[in-house]
Specification:
Helices cover 27% and strands 27% of the residues. It has helices spanning 10-16, 46-55, 63-71, 86-104, 122-129, 174-179, 186-191, 238-245, 271-275; strands spanning 23-30, 35-42, 75-84, 120-121, 132-133, 144-149, 182-183, 192-199, 205-211, 214-222, 225-233, 250-251, 263-266, 285-286. Strand 1 (23-30) and strand 2 (35-42) form a beta hairpin. It is elongated, with a radius of gyration of 23 Å.
């Protein structure tokens, strides 16, 4: 059971506040009576404002909805869709209201009808995007870690069923994007034990992690120069590896990528470094050519 919240975390707000696409459409429901109370659009913490306003008989929602929210003993708050422009949110809000009035209220038997097929509760959304900072000097993996930037990481499919290779890579899949293809040296590729996907927009949130059990190479010519790309293989699951590395719902704000670079390395501490951890504030981090 996810604990109730009164506002989104800062990291969740940074995800939602995507420029002009900062709007979302939401739904308030009575979880005990399986009733839809209100559908609206907004941004920031708008979804949380109605409950307090209803109980204080203030706010700008319809009077019947205000009364229903005030009487509700178990309020459900669901984000139906986000990363919308205000115009898109207005259109979606109107369509949902018409749908509920013409269809759902007539045949409201499905208990999940209050949130819809793609709905997610405000608490679940916040839990998904809440990443706690993890100091790099607190990490000591048992092998070389390759950290890679993943653009649009939170919008990617998270299915892990396939074993992605060069011939079936999927740019819309998080696992596929994390595993490659990366331009690194063969010596470095052979030493990588873990590869982690980083969302730089969330203070370097760690959004995927895999234990490497092999790789394949692909040579190409770019601007008249030959380069080798590496794609890693894995039989592991991201959730288990994140747990193993202590990186579940963690971000690495101290992790530095080279100028314009997409990769960084985190390597295990030596015995001397472990002994001197109290006086050594930073772990060894490089952006290229890691050493054993």
């Amino acid at each position: 059971m996810v604990a109730k919240i009164k506002k989104f975390s800062d990291s969740t707000l940074s995800v939602l506040n995507n420029g002009e696409r900062r709007f979302y459409v939401y739904c308030l429901t009575d979880l005990k009576k399986d009733k839809i109370l209100y559908i609206g659009k907004g941004c920031d913490n708008r979804i949380f404002e109605h409950e307090q306003a209803a109980r204080s008989q203030d706010g700008d929602i319809d009077v019947p909805a205000r009364k229903a929210i005030a009487k509700c003993k178990k309020l459900g708050r669901y984000i139906i869709s986000y990363h919308l422009t205000e115009i898109e949110a207005q259109a979606a809000e109107t369509a949902l209201i018409h749908f509920v009035k013409s269809v759902v209220d007539k045949k409201f038997k499905n208990k999940s009808a209050g949130c819809g097929a793609g709905g997610i509760s405000a608490e679940e959304l916040d839990n998904r995007f809440k990443f706690k900072p993890c100091p790099l000097d607190g990490l000591n993996p048992d092998g070389l870690v390759l950290a890679v930037k993943i653009q649009d990481a939170l919008d990617l499919d998270t299915d892990e069923e396939l074993d992605y290779r060069f011939d079936n890579q999927d740019d819309a899949n998080l696992k596929s994007r994390t595993l490659g293809n990366w331009v690194i040296g063969k010596d470095a590729a052979s030493k990588v034990k873990y590869i982690i996907g980083i969302h730089t927009g969330l203070q370097n949130a760690v959004i995927s992690a895999y234990e490497v059990d092999g790789f394949e190479m692909f040579e190409e010519t770019k601007n008249g120069r030959k380069q080798t790309r590496y794609r890693f293989h894995t039989a592991s699951s991201s959730k288990k590896v994140l747990s193993k590395l202590g990186l579940q719902q963690k971000c690495l704000p101290d992790l530095k990528f080279g100028s314009g670079g997409e990769k960084a390395y985190i390597r295990p501490k030596t015995e001397t470094e472990q002994e001197n951890i109290q006086t050594t504030p930073s772990p060894k981090i490089t952006t290229e050519n890691p050493k054993s």
